[in-house]
Structure formats: structure tokens, C-alpha cells
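Shall we go through a protein fold together, starting from nothing but its sequence? Please make up or recall a protein chain and show it to me in full. Go ahead whenever you are ready, and we will take it from there.
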Amino acid sequence: MPDQLTEALLPEVERWLRSHSWAAADRPVEALLAAKRAAGRAGSVSVVLPALDEEPTVGEIVRVIRRELVERIPLVDELVVVDSGSVDRTAELAAAAGARVVHRDDILPRIPTVPGKGEVLWRSLLATTGEIVCFIDADLREFDPAFVTGIVGPLLTDPGIQLVKAMYDRPLETEGAVVPAGGGRVTELVARPLLNLHWPQLAGFVQPLGGEYAARRSLLERLHFPTGYGVELGLLVDALDEVGLDALAQVDVGVRHHRHQDGQALGRMAATIYRTALERLDRTHRLKAADDLVHPHLTQFTRASRSRGFTPHTHPVTALERPPMLSVPEYRERG
């Protein structure tokens, strides 16, 4: 992270950005393998891909992970695709590429399943055994194994780290056009404002809703899992409450290429994420917009350069309201 940070950042977040934000290249794979061997059982790694109709991409992701991180360098112990009801060849292609494929409905069958990504991630804890669990979205294109090595790295090398999120550039690629920083629309319009205002300690996360993150099983098994799109925000907020900011980290893994949702799908995602936030605000009695509960600043990020990572820019969030004009004496005197 850069040396110059805006004054409106909380001192705790500024310190965290300097000490808990890394690049994947900071931890070479060979060093991770040595740390994994030294950790024994505590260094076992399960990679989980939640998948629903991801035929175009899931096979290549599995092939890359298996070739680079299972066979060439034995960093990943378990590679599991949890299929949540695909009607295409997702399960077939994932199995052919070398993953163990488990259907969502076959995990904990006594509890009826509901639709949603969070439901799949929650059930995956019963379908895996690694002490470090790494979640990777199954719609990624041009997949780089650094998405895995980057986010499991701090967990293997630092026993104080409990959860690691990937950070990356997220271009919007639609109909042949590319907007370099146009992806992550729900992040910028909904999740980032909510986190900055109500959980300002999390303002330093570049991709709070990103689907690529890893955590210790001992943490995940203690957290609530929202069943839908709110799972990433819910887990991040609850992890902060459970283990504190210094147990959380983020790693720059480059660029994320993936399928983009249409406007109505984004609206559904935004509503779910907003409700997830409201549930946590209500649970912790933080719904009132008092000065001591709302941090009136918004921190956003731009890519400085490939070597210098992301630069934070903080802006005030104004909430000044004028009274009804009828209460203004000059207005009433006008007749």
C-alpha cells in the first residue's frame, strides 16, 4: 500500500493497510510449501468451488489448480466442487478435470436446502476436511493459481491471521467493450458505503464482496452464513466481531475476469446485501444513525500501479438536512 493515506482514514485502518495488505508475490510458493509442511495438520488446505451452471469455466479452473497446486506443488490437499443444482455439464466437466464433485442436496440431507451461494458455502464445511478452507468462484476466466496461493499464504505463514480476502482489478467486460474499473458495481454502490459508515474498521478492504477468500476452519465453523448473496459481507462483518481487525488481511492477486450480471440481478444482490447489513446492525443495536455509530466518510480505491498496489481516497459523507421551510421565520413572514 502507498505511503500517503488520507487524513479521514481511521488510524487503525491506516495502520492495518500498511501491515496487513500484501501482494501474492510476497510469499513464493516454495516458502508456502515449507510452511505447510512445518504446520502439519494445521496446514491442510481445502479448495471449494461453489458452482451453478458454470460449464464454460469450471473445468479450466479445476485443471489449473490440480496441475499447479496438487500435482506440481502439493499445496492443496482437497479440491471440491459443490454443485448447487446445475442443469448443464458443470458437474461432469469438473469431475473430468480432477475435482471431487458433491451435490449440495447430498450434504446434511436432514435440513432441506434453499437456493443461494451462502447455503452452498455453509454446507461445504461438512464436505471438506482441511483446516484452511479456500473459496473460489467458478465463473472466473483466465484463472491464475495466485488466486489460491495468494490468499492461503498468510494463513500458512502467520498463525495470527484468520481470514484473507483477495483484492484485484475488476474490469467490466461487456459486448466487446472494457471499462478498466467498471466491475464491482454492487460493491461501490451498496457494500462499500454500508461498511464505511457502520463498520469503518473494514474500510480498507478493496474487494469486500469478492468471492475469493480463505479462512481457518476454526473461525468459519463459529460464524453465521447468510444463505444468499449477502454471505461475503456477513462473514466479513462477523469475523471482525469474532477475531478483530488484526486477524484479517488481504492480498493483491492481479486482475479478476468473470461473467457480469445484468441490472436486475445486481438489484437483487444489492437488496440481499442491504438486508444482511440491517440484520447485523439490528443484532448489535447499531441501527440509530448517531454520531458515535456512523463514521461519516467513504474510502474508495484506485490502482496506483502494478508495483504500488491500490491507493485509498477518502471523502466526507454529508448528512446535513434543512428544516421544513414552514419553520423558517423569513418564509412565514413573506406571507
About this structure: The radius of gyration is 21 Å. The domain at 11-333 is CATH 3.90.550.10 (Spore Coat Polysaccharide Biosynthesis Protein SpsA; Chain A). The longest strand covers residues 297-305.
